[in-house]
Serine/threonine protein kinase (Minwuia thermotolerans), 373 residues
Amino acid sequence: MNRTDEPAVVESWNEWDPLRHVIVGRADGGCIPPPEPALDAKVPEDSDMRGQWGPRSQETVDRANERLDAFARLLEKRGVRVDRPTPIDFNQPIATPDWRTESMFGCMPPRDVLLTVGKEMLEATMSYRCRWFEYLCYRPLLQRYCEDDPAMRHEAAPKPRLTDADYRSDYLSERIGVEKRLKWTAEKHFVTTEEEPLFDAADVLRFGRDLVVQHGFTTNLKGIDWLRRHFPDHRVHAVNFPGDPYPIHIDATFTPIRPGLILNNPDRRLPDDQRGLFERNGWEIVDAARPAHNSPPPLCYSSVWLSMNVLVLDPKTVCVEATEVHQMEQLDRLGMEVVPVDLRDAYAFGGGLHCATADVRREGAREDYFPKG
């Protein structure tokens, strides 16, 4: 599954062109990380994960890997080349001169770490200490892509120090309350400060010449400015979603399906003053269907809105988690061929179908989807 005699070609400009090569994550060795400032702000106040950390049970690892392996096989049957990361020992302490934490996280969600823009694959800064070394799981693949494709660029954003100065102390309380969290997010008062550039790759959506980046818990304004400087031939747009008390990663909130169509979480709508880019250029922003579940799986960081964390295979075909019947029905009505994928047992290891993948190659060139600016 992991190897092919054909050399890899790296190129992907958007979220919907025909997918030809992808990385699918693994659950091996996944851990619930110990407390740290960024993590404490993310874990919902009523979560069963509060106060827990350590290796996840082998039973849950095996079940998640069954789902991920089956997903990889499904993609291969549809003509998509699939590579997998190389897990490291996540259940060990890590440290820098500035901090120490007792374990790491895992490598189920490559979308969080790797951002493919055209011929470049960029390692994000990451904003959690427990995820500092996660890029190592992907280095064997990136080295091979560099060898196979002379035009491929392997880049890494500057590693942040992640000292306490990167996080707001008022987010360290376990009982802030949703009302205050919503007030803070509306005011763009997030757990990350502007001490140094921070961004997770999963906060970035690719629209050809344009990159849309969520400002929130895992990406700050300095991180967005760094991306703007790093991609000078792109237009970089900052967005935020005031209805989200835990604004982490854009792909369960704002999901492009094909040119001209975006699903938006109805509880986290894009503010009116940020909709102009899409409206001027004829894009339709549709409220996503409600999730089929009232709660996430046990020991899962993510919200029920992983229902809209889908993987588009081409402008007419989309993978949706198999139990998310409402999201499947909506996308069917919108004219998409829906491919159900059983992945819910892997959610706790890092997210849904989009999270669990990272593009290597999609057909198509860089287009201008927002000519009216």
